[in-house]
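Submission checklist for the structure archive. All mandatory fields must be present; incomplete records are returned to the submitter.

[x] Identifier: FAD-binding oxidoreductase
[x] Organism: Vogesella indigofera
[x] Residue count: 462
[x] Sequence attached
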Amino acid sequence: MLAPQQLAELGRLLAADRVATDTDTLTRYGLDWTRYFTPDAAAVLFPKTVEEVVALVRWAQREQFALVPSGGRTGLSGGAVARNGELVVSFERMNAILELDKVGRTVRCQAGVITKTLQEYALANGLYYPVDFASSGSSQIGGNIATNAGGIKVVRYGMTREWVVGLKVVTGEGEVLELNHGLAKNNTGYDFRHLFIGSEGTLGFIVEATLRLARPPAELAVMVLAVPQLADIMNIFNAYRDKLDLTAFEFFSEQALRHVLARGTVQRPFDEAADYYVLLEFEKIAPDTETQALALFEYCAEQGWLVDGVLSQSQQQAAELWRLREDISESITPYKPYKNDIAVVVSKVPAFVAQLDEILAREYPQFEVVWFGHIGDGNLHINVLKPEALAIDDFRRACEQVNKHVFELVRDFNGSMSAEHGVGLLKHDYLDVSRSHAEIRLMKAVKSLFDPDGIMNPGKLV
């Protein structure tokens, strides 16, 4: 708890109107999309400059006060939760796009820039920032980097890490590091930039980023396919990937679709329901690209891999088809889903899915399980929905019992127990599923090096 003197000191560092202690602000900024923790922040701080961030970190180190970074708070693993009286540092007022280099195709911006804002800025300048996800309208660049966000375009463009060419960070000692300076080539030893990407704020705060941009894609088309068996999805993926320039390859279950349809904002794509659906997006780079896509549809239908399909005829229809996939998370949020965000090597997906399906059917007979994910890069999202009558703590304990079986399978396949949501509070007990004891020991050593007093987002990741 902050003493009056400490509160006054913070007010002098920032200005009193950028230090919030009211209940509504503490609750809103002390919690991300995770719903398994009760927020308990001491105050929420809103710096505007790098110098203010440095001053806050040095004050916190001196006072031994823990800090929790806050971006768009769209995380799903508790990485931005303040539950032990920490100070929340919000970057929403550090939201300037600072510099565009059209020749080098890079942009430098502050950590609080909204993802969609950056995407629109790039397009307005004839360029493209391809990292995209359903939360692009609220997620922030700093948070995306701190969690190495992936999303719906990974099959073509990769994770956030691929697009970060420079970082400015403030370490747990209040030291400012300029990492890589936006260089395309810099072969001078350890690249600390990559330590901060995916570090979840445990080493320090990302305050600025220099990001690589690309050319805008050609006109995009979207197909939604009805698939009777989950195992056939990878056959469809292989067929389309060999012939088309895919920018996305997503899947979702009928259960997921029903929750989206229940909101009344989109229409069912087909007259008859299927157990699973694929959404794929591709560039129309040649006059006959759509003809090729339809020929592939006929081929897959002949193999019995799909039973129906639709191809967008306009950009508006393409956006409406995307909503079938992108609206899933929001539509199931009221059910307080317990999420498993797992990944294996793409070639191993069919065998992994077959065994995982057996586990889920056996261990979750009383719960509704919603499947969706970026299956084109081996990433599956398993969402277990909480029954209304079941207390949330009891529900979480039941899900954690099943985790043992799910994560044993992930370990057997040398997979990741957190493909893109991060580790945070929810998953740090399972880190050894995907990391060896030697790796974890070294991760803790790195944490101690950059944050010797343990004030940076404590309890998360390691």
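[x] Structure attached
Curator remark: The chain has four domains: 4-92, 97-212, 220-329, 336-443. The CA atoms of residues 416 and 435 lie 9 Å apart.
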